[in-house]
Amino acid sequence: MPLNTRWITLPLLLTAGIAAAADWPGSAALELTRLDYQGSGLRDRLNQRKLDLGLQASPALGLTAGLGESRVDYRQGGVLEERTLALAAEGLSPDRDWAWRLGGIRVEDRQTGAPDLTSRTVLAGLGWWRTPDLLLDTGFCRTRLDSGTTVDQLTPMIGGSFNDRYTWVQLRGYLQRFSQTSENLDRAAAAELKLTQWLQPGPVLKPRTLQAMVSGGKRLYSVDTDTLELYTQPYIQTAAAWAGAGWRPQPNLDFLLLAGATRSHSPSLADTLDSRFLYLNLSTHW
């Protein structure tokens, strides 16, 4: 049977493990990303790794911690290293009609020939199960950058399950306001559409899930509320898409592989990024 859709607002990539923790007390996931920048005069490639830990403290309360680091190599030499710490608590109301989330993210950037920078985000979210198969959700994030800029982000979302809960579709908006003009923007807006399709169990090599995402608009210094990631670089993302599949070779082991592309540009750096990436996630539950 497909995953209980009451937990689908928590990371769709099954990385934080709270979704799986509905059946297991704890979880761990290792994420690896390789991204190549095409068309950029500044950046060459990015390598990122992240460890997510999840604990189901009670039937209605889940705790998540994420530790990550990434490295960007520049074409003319030099590197940008980034370290991330994310913490969140997520839960359900006693009647299980409401879901909530509180958390925070801290990102430290160290770039060759530049001062260290620290960015911080606090986030909150509230979801309402209008019916067992329809969810209305909204999230709010406030990010403080070392430059003094504050970014307020609102993320309304609607999601629903179909096909006897084997299909999940969600549409999320990103509405941003900047305390001071950033990359020629005072405000920004974008939309993101995600699809997850569960498949009937079969041979080990048969995928358990198929997933896809497409987004458009403008996002800058945005927070991904599904994966608890804060993007701190001065690039405006205008388009992104990815697709992939997930496998469950054993009852307590999940494997996810995604491939995708993004397009971003930075007026202040006069640089454009046409990026291609591969993402691997290996998670276990106990």
Describe the structure in your own words.
This protein has strands spanning 26-38, 43-58, 61-74, 79-92, 98-111, 117-131, 134-144, 150-162, 167-182, 185-198, 209-219, 223-224, 229-230, 236-250, 253-266, 271-285. The protein has 286 residues and is mainly beta. It has one domain: Porin. The strands form 2 sheets. It has a 14-stranded antiparallel barrel. A two-stranded antiparallel ribbon has the order 12-13. A hairpin with a 4-residue loop joins strand 15 (253-266) and strand 16 (271-285). It starts with 25 loop residues before the first strand and ends with a strand.
Could you list some keywords that capture this structure?
single chain, 286 residues, mainly beta, Porin, 14-stranded antiparallel barrel, 70% strand, disordered N terminus, DUF481 domain-containing protein, signal
Write the layout of secondary structure elements.
Blueprint: E1 26-38, E2 43-58, E3 61-74, E4 79-92, E5 98-111, E6 117-131, E7 134-144, E8 150-162, E9 167-182, E10 185-198, E11 209-219, E12 223-224, E13 229-230, E14 236-250, E15 253-266, E16 271-285
Antiparallel strand pairs: 1-2, 1-16, 2-3, 3-4, 4-5, 5-6, 6-7, 7-8, 8-9, 9-10, 10-11, 11-14, 12-13, 14-15, 15-16
The SS-based structural class is mainly beta
Rough outline: globular
Chain-averaged pLDDT: 90
In terms of DSSP E residues, the strand content is: over 45%
The run of helices and strands is EEEEEEEEEEEEEEEE
CATH homologous superfamily caption: monomeric porin ompg
CATH-derived architecture: Beta Barrel
Helix content: under 10%
Instruction: Pick out the low-confidence regions.
Output: 1-22
Distance between the termini: 19 Å
> So how many helices?
0
Determine the CATH topology. Porin
CATH class: Mainly Beta
Radius of gyration: 19 Å
Please tell me the total number of domains.
Answer: 1
Q: How many individual β-strands? A: 16
Largest sheet features? 14 strands, antiparallel, barrel
Give, in spatial order, the strands making up the sheet with the most strands: 1-2-3-4-5-6-7-8-9-10-11-14-15-16
